[in-house]
Amino acid sequence: MTTLSPSKPIWIYDTTLRDGAQREGISLSLDDKLRIARRLDRLGIPFIEGGWPGANPKDVQFFWHLKEQPLTQAALVAFCSTRRPNTKAAEDPMLQAILSAGTEWITFFGKSWDLHVTEGLHTTLEENRAMIADTAEYLRSQGRRIMYDAEHWFDGYKKNPHYALSTLDAAVQAGAEWVILCDTNGGSLPYEINAIVRDVQAHFQQQQYTVKLGIHPHNDSDTAVANAIAAVQEGAQMVQGTINGYGERCGNVNLCSAIPNLQLKLGYSCLAEEQLANLTETSRFVSEVVNLAPNHHAPFVGRSAFAHKGGIHVSAVARNPLTYEHLQPEKIGNQRRIVVSDQAGLSNILAKARSFGIDLDKQNPACRQILDRLKELENQGYQFEGAEASFELLMRSTLGQAQSWFEIKGFNVHCDMGASTPDPTMTSNALATIKVRVNGRDFLEVAEGNGPVAALDAALRKALVKFYPEIGSFYLTDYKVRILDGTAGTSAKTRVLVESSDGLNRWTTVGVSTNILDASYQAVVEGLEYGLLFVHKTQEKDSSQSVNLASFG
Ligand SMILES: CC(=O)SCCNC(=O)CCNC(=O)[C@H](O)C(C)(C)COP(=O)(O)OP(=O)(O)OC[C@H]1O[C@@H](n2cnc3c(N)ncnc32)[C@H](O)[C@@H]1OP(=O)(O)O
Ligand SMILES: CC(=O)C(=O)O
């Protein structure tokens, strides 16, 4: 079991695999669930809720897999509801399925709000209390440890505090070790959380309960993180939430924000310090597995969370990062980024040069030339913040450091779009001819493609791969087109962003023209040039390292 520092421990309970999977657009396979569980286990999350065994075959298999090959640190938790009204807990098939999952811990949820009891469950207030107590007692009698999720706690308490508190009494007196107050509809604001958690603490003290308290906020009012913090400040010791805030409707509390706020700002202990530095990677891993694009602007873990764009900011951050950063990005495994755009100043150029391994000094007049060229091109429609490879090529060419790998002497693309009903078996409808000069000699190449850009790209590679075999491993991973002046109709200027890869690294280049083919051509050519530059830079670095090592040998 995970051990936390004794100073102000907060138990993090992850429900990405259950409540997170209730988000529209997420559909996890068994393998996805297992991969996420193991990653959260490595991160040191103490409680991982795996799902609702019995609700679907996948969740049954998930618990079965983890029974065979258990997690190493975390306690795996099975989730379910109370028994059905007017039945016996021992005869409830759903509770039998939960027990078969074989976990030490079980979380079950019950109704706190009288409206839900009478209108949702269609039963009496008394029977609902009995359902809670019987479920806890039965699961306890089977040797399990119990957490009780008080569904709709805050709404229920606001409407009928006396009845709501009596449902908690039922759970605690029947042996629940934790009571978790759920803001199920996500409508509460932090001041309400403060006041209500304080009332619950007072009630528990009066009853001399030793049960521990947790919070499970949803984000419908965009205050889930603030609500979790408010509850913790009133004495809650557990936060139930999800990675990246995934969850039904607007999501659950985002653990990637709650954890660093609690730990780095308020001095609570949620994760081991060295594990906190894996939070960014975990956030991105989970977004990859659930197949949702990461939110670049997410606080703490987003790609842009520490990205500086304005020249004034970059200049100050270069002197002292505290000027525009609320904490050190490395603490949660993120990193500072400097973005180049028409909002840049010389400081952005210098910072970028450093990151490219280019030795550049503010006194060098080329520095201002690069900045002016950047602003002029951005004014024409280029966008370098999303195309850093093109910016490195621009910088090197202004500094006279560009290597001439090849020169395009001309190209021609022919598209055959004549057929009124396209033949689905036809893989090619475009033909590109290109003349390229390499090492002082001209070469003519022809290639087909299923579109003009594909044909041009194929012809170019065919001409170059003889000289630069590494080009054989480059491929296009993304192609984006944006119309820059929408009112100009089909004669509008277009910006094309091309992302290329060598299987390990990715880089993006940009082209702008009123002719979409010309814009694509610029971006594709720069993609190949940058790929060659990158491969050669890496080889030089590797060989200089081996020379250094040899000199130590
Ligand atoms: C706040 C939360 O996030 S709670 C978790 C919500 N998550 C899910 O619902 C996902 C998993 N759910 C499921 O797979 C299914 O809904 C199941 C297997 C649980 C139940 O399926 P079904 O038997 O077909 O019932 P259905 O989904 O239509 O309705 C839910 C039933 O649970 C009952 N129920 C709701 N809350 C509770 C509770 N706390 N205790 C006992 N029963 C409850 C409802 O009254 C309803 O009963 P009814 O069938 O007698 O009308
Ligand atoms: C239990 C739960 O997920 C909720 O009330 O939101």
From TrEMBL:
Domain (Pyruvate carboxyltransferase) spans 10-277
EC number of this enzyme: 2.3.3.21
Q: Which reaction does it catalyse?
A: pyruvate + acetyl-CoA + H2O = (3R)-citramalate + CoA + H(+)
Q: In which pathway does it act?
A: Amino-acid biosynthesis; L-isoleucine biosynthesis; 2-oxobutanoate from pyruvate: step 1/3
What species is this protein from?
Answer: Roseofilum halophilum BLCC-M91
Q: What family is this protein classified in?
A: Belongs to the alpha-IPM synthase/homocitrate synthase family.
The protein's matches in Pfam families, at most eight in alphabetical order, are given as: HCS_D2, HMGL-like, LeuA_dimer
Protein's UniProt name: Citramalate synthase
Keyword annotations for this protein, in alphabetical order, are: Amino-acid biosynthesis, Branched-chain amino acid biosynthesis, Isoleucine biosynthesis, Transferase
